[in-house]
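Internal tracking record. Fields below are filled automatically when a chain is submitted to the structure queue. Please do not edit lines marked as system-generated. If the sequence contains nonstandard residues, flag them in the REMARKS field before resubmitting.
Queue: standard
Priority: normal
Entity type: single polypeptide chain
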Amino acid sequence: MKKLLLLLLIYFPLRLQAQDSEFNPPRWKNLSRGYVYGMLHQDKFGGGITYDYGFNKYLAAGLGVEFTSFEDHLLIPTFIDLKARYPFGKFEPFINGQFGYNNYRVTYQYHYSDNNGNPATTNYQKTGKLFYGVGAGVSYLFGHIGVFASYTFRGYTYKYASFTANNSVVSFPDDKPTANLISAGIVF
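SYSTEM-GENERATED OUTPUT FOLLOWS
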């Protein structure tokens, strides 16, 4: 399912852009934007793609997916992106909000002593949950293609699965780290 979502996110923006421009394109096409970018997620590099449907020249909403890492493990945020933009000339400053799910799964080991005092180990998982992001950026359009740069502040939530050790349930509270993202790339 994740592969299908990724293929759709890549295919549709490229397909829409590839249509012959000598025809009169629909108005929404002139207002919609695709973003392909590299990013710095805290101190880790990653990349992503977002496609926003333009409702008018000021508001847009779409889907996005990114590939990066958290605590040296793969993190794949998938999200809804909402943008408010104010175009003037070739510049298009914007503010955005992102809401989605962070696909993340890491297995840890919990070491303890069993009821007889012998060392024991059990595995448990830390998985991604929902996240939010707020940010701002600016695009510069050369025509149908341009460049952009943006900053986004994100708040993530990770959950730990409960497990049993010595006939007692062990659980940890949700982990709620924040992250700073700097993105730059191509807009089309």
